[in-house]
Write a structure and sequence with these properties.
The structure is a single chain. By secondary structure, the protein is α+β, with helices and mostly antiparallel strands. 39% of the residues lie in helices and 22% in strands. Among the domains are: 145 residues, DNA methylase specificity domains (Adenine-n6-DNA-methyltransferase TaqI, Chain A, domain 2, Alpha-Beta Complex); 124 residues, Alpha-Beta Complex (Adenine-n6-DNA-methyltransferase TaqI, Chain A, domain 2), CATH 3.90.220.
Length: 398
């Protein structure tokens, strides 16, 4: 809380009494519309090239190296991008990606092609400052005024040049860039740390799961799924009133939530048909509605734990796929599924294995859920401070 307050105070002090002049983009730099350059033109090495589509799929706020290259011969015909220039997208299938920008900071001169505009900043604006401003709602509102098209959205270089940009003194722009760069770096570091932790936990989990669930034929008794479990498919719900019960129907996640249920908690589910679902094994801790394209499986033997059966099945999805007919619409018939072999260690051993794997599962899932949540919180914090730093009122807004 105190850190946030200190940051807000620092920003307020930085912007206190700052004179800001609003100018059209075309007044504060040179705009050059690119032409040519297709993906088929890329080469393994050569002249650095920035393709417009890569700006919203690959690059961040700046690039010191390019993802792609073109031949020197083709580069002669393309528009040149110098160090410090900004490359802006003019075209996309959605308005959000139009106007996205990247500062080129590479040492070698680069090139770009059609659907992109090169902005060569004058001495009164920093390229990075401009890139950060293109991420604000103010810029979004401006580009919306000039957007043309329905399936493909375009804001021409001519119209882009009309967008108004706030120009504080260069030392203020420099500090704004420094602060926002810091937030960007912190978010990237956090993502890398959490991703590495998640990867390590997954490897550890997979190792212990394989170790715990690997049994030799002579070590334990083996039974078929049909001998130890009830196996049936669900059916369509009688109503589609929304509620708290998950509707599971051949997907890997609930497709809806209903006010009614037809299956009790602690049940295994696996798709009976459908592209991409066969082999997936889910576990429903709560009551749910089972649809006609999903099997519901539960132990009918007091000496066999349903959760243990789930771990055995989910550890070998390829064996389930091998039971299915994958020609045309993939289908897993009950007569094949009932023959799936399950190792049956003593009940105490099943309970021990389930307890260990549940702990690993909880840790892994908390990381999987925590990663996007942490990133989202950082992103919201970044957006909050970015708005504080770049929310300069126009004269008419005062």
């Amino acid at each position: 809380m105190s850190n946030n307050l200190n940051m807000q105070n620092s920003i307020a002090k930085l912007l206190d009494g700052v004179a800001v002049e609003w100018k059209a983009l075309g007044e504060i730099g040179l705009l050059i519309r690119g032409s040519g350059l297709q993906k088929k033109d890329f080469t393994e090495t050569g002249v650095p090239a920035i393709h417009y589509g890569q700006i919203y799929t690959y690059y961040g706020n700046f690039a010191t190296e390019t993802k792609s290259f073109v031949s020197a011969k083709l580069a002669e015909k393309l528009k040149k991008v110098d160090t410090g220039d900004v490359v802006i997208t003019n075209t996309s299938e959605n308005l959000e990606d139009v106007g996205k920008a990247v500062v080129y900071l590479g040492k070698k001169q680069a090139v770009t092609g059609g659907h992109a505009t090169i902005f060569k900043p004058s001495k009164i604006i920093l390229g990075k400052y401009f890139v950060y401003f293109t991420q604000t709602s103010m810029f979004a509102n401006e580009k919306r005024k000039y957007a043309k098209g329905t399936k493909v959205i375009d804001v021409s270089a001519t119209d882009m040049s009309k967008i108004m940009i706030p120009i504080p003194p260069l030392h203020v722009q420099t500090e704004i860039v420094r602060i926002l760069d810091t937030f960007t770096e912190l978010t990237a570091e956090l993502t890398a740390e959490l991703t590495a932790e998640l990867t390590a936990r997954k490897k550890q989990y997979n190792y212990y799961r394989d170790k715990l669930l690997t049994f030799k034929e002579y070590e334990v008794e083996w039974k078929t799924l049909g001998e130890i479990c009830s196996i049936s498919v669900g059916h369509r719900p009688s109503n589609n009133i929304k509620g708290k019960y998950a509707f599971v129907n051949a997907g890997t996640t609930p497709s809806d939530y209903l006010s009614i249920y037809n299956t009790d908690e602690e049940t295994i589910t696996t798709p009976s048909r459908g592209q991409g679902g066969i082999g997936y094994v889910g576990y429903q801790h709560n009551r749910f509605w089972c649809g006609p394209l999903s099997y519901r499986i539960r132990s009918i033997n007091d000496n066999i734990i349903t959760r243990f059966v789930y771990y055995v099945m989910s550890n070998v999805p390829h064996k389930i796929i091998n039971l299915a007919n994958m020609v045309g619409i993939p289908a897993l018939n009950r007569k094949e599924l009932v023959n799936f072999s399950i190792p049956i260690p003593p009940l105490e051993e099943q309970a021990r294995i389930v307890e260990i794997l549940d702990k690993f599962d909880a840790i892994t899932n908390s990381l999987i859920e925590g990663l996007p949540r942490e990133i989202e919180l950082r992103q919201k914090q970044y957006e909050y401070y970015r708005n504080l730093l770049l929310n300069f009122p126009k004269v008419e807004d005062k």
